[in-house]
Every structure is written in C-alpha cells, then in structure tokens.
What we know:
CATH class: Alpha Beta
Mean pLDDT: 89
Order of helices and strands: EHEEHEEEEHEEEEEEHEEEHHHHH
Low-confidence stretches: 1-7
Strand order of the largest sheet: 6-5-11-12-13-10-14
Distance between the termini: 34 Å
Strand content: 15-25%
Number of domains: 1
Amino acid sequence: MEMGLGAxxxxxxxxxxxxxxxxxxxxxxxxxxxxxxxxxxxxxxNRTKCGLTPCAWGxxxxxxxxxxxCDLNPMDYILHRPDYVWIDEVKIDADLMTxxxxxxxxxxxxxxxxxxxxxxxxxxxxVIDATGLSRAFLPPIKKDLLLPCIQYRVKSERRLENQxxxxxxxxxxxxxxxxxTYHIGCGSLSKDPAALLGSLGWLKRNGMKMVCDCSARIxxxxxxxxxxxxxxxxxxxxxxxxxxxxxxxxxxxxxxLTGMLTVKLLLKHWDDPQGYEKAVxxxxxxxxxxxxxxxxxxxxxxxxxxxxxxxxxxxxxxGMRIGVADAxxxxxxxx
Length: 335
C-alpha cells in the first residue's frame, strides 16, 4: 500500500459523521481531526469496566507503523512484547504484542465529544459505519459468521505463560499485559467457550484475582460476503470500515490491524466507492482462503496441504513462524 497517512488528504465532504468509536472509528477520527476536518462522533454507552466490547488487547507488529502514522508514539501503548508463544505443546517464535487499547482509544478521541445517540444520516454528506458487529447503517449480511467469545482480565501472583490452546473450531488464550496482569479468553464456533476455557483450569489457579470480564461475538465472515461496503444516500451515503465490512481474520479473529488498514483504504478512495470496494477485496483477499478453511473445519471436511499453507501464512501475518508440518498438526487440533 503506497499511501502514508502523513500525505495530504483532500476530502470532498465537509459534513462527516463517524458512528462507532472502536479502533477503526477512533483511528479515522484522529486522522481527520489532525488535518482540520470537523467530525461528529456517535456511539452507544458501553457498560463494561474498560468501556470496550470486546476489549481485544493483542495485535501484531504492523500496528506500530500504522499508529506512528497518526502522530502517536506506539511505544506509549505497548504493554508486553513476548518473543514466543506456546500453541498447544509447540513453542513458536513470535513477534506479538499486547497494548493498552482503552488508553489508546481515549487518546485518539482526546478533545472529541461523543454523542450517545444514533446519527440522523440525512444531515451528513458522509457517514462512516464503524459500528463493528452491529453494522448499524449497512444492510444485513446473509452469510454472516459470528464467533462467541468470553474474555477476562486477571491478576495472578504466579507467572503465567503466553499461550494458545486450540479446539472447538476456535481457541483459548492467555496473554501477558504486565508482570502480574493477564488477558485470558476463549472463542469457539462449535462449543460453549466458557466450558472450553473451564476445562483448562486457567481461571482456578491459586492467587488469581478477577479484574473484569465480558462476553461478545466477533465477525469472522470476511469482506466478500459483507458487501456492500458503501450504500448510496443523501448525498454520498454510508461507507463501512473494519469489522462492519467483515475485515477480521477468520482464523485468528484479529481485527485491530485490519480495521486500521481499511481506514487507509477509505481515505485513498474517498470519492471512489467502487475503487474502495475493489481495494478492500484485493488487500484482504487472503481472508477468503481463511474463511474457506473455517467452513471446512465446521463441516468436518478433509484437510489438505493447501489448508495447512493457509494457516502457515496466517501465522506469518501474526508474527509467528510456523512451518507446514506444524500447521497441519495445529489444524487438526483446531477442529
């Protein structure tokens, strides 16, 4: 992708609303505000302790570059950066990180007033649907695939490993946030995530204290079935970004980095809805392959070398170095 966010942006619309202040909506607001555009922000109140659902504290290395492009120091938000992760019984070299997502969003929205109501889209030249799972201003998705998940933030007197356990067409995770704070969760497409996580016993360790918890669903649909990304309206309509248009990795459930990338594509194709849709499908074409593998896992279909390569490529995007042999074994565990 050629365009850096530091480049001059000429936007034809002057009356802009962003619905949703998650990572994609806040990132877009920050970029537009820095360049002198007035933007009205809308979001519904969130009753969770951290103010986010889901909280999603993990991401990969591309996040640093994207955040640096909107005049924030990414290192101010990084909490932990392990150089490995245990996936089942395999220790994998990795370049993953956890970051302070609540603080980051607060800083990206600094000085903004968020209206706790739904925008009247007829009053705006352009409305950006960054409402994530609800996709509030775009048509419903016919073949939507939603992952139920539960998440906990805990404090532990004992050091916990950075780890992922696969199963139930999903996975459980334990990611360090600091020396004593961890993010633990589980998502599954075929089983109860609470039961799966409970079977691991991670939350029953001595010396563990619960800080907060939440449950949510994550869209694993991919961008292809999530079209249209743009709906005509008065006068320019609604344009979607991030999870609203299915741009979450179907195998990993990661939408932080991909949501920020959709913002870059939106700005590059601001006055070209067809160009925007084509750019999203081209940039995230790999999600179609991942969705195909997920569908095979759900149907119990035989898995082959092509599927293992899809998981291997997914791991590389996430900063993990997994070979085809390990990928084949992990796919079986994922089922």
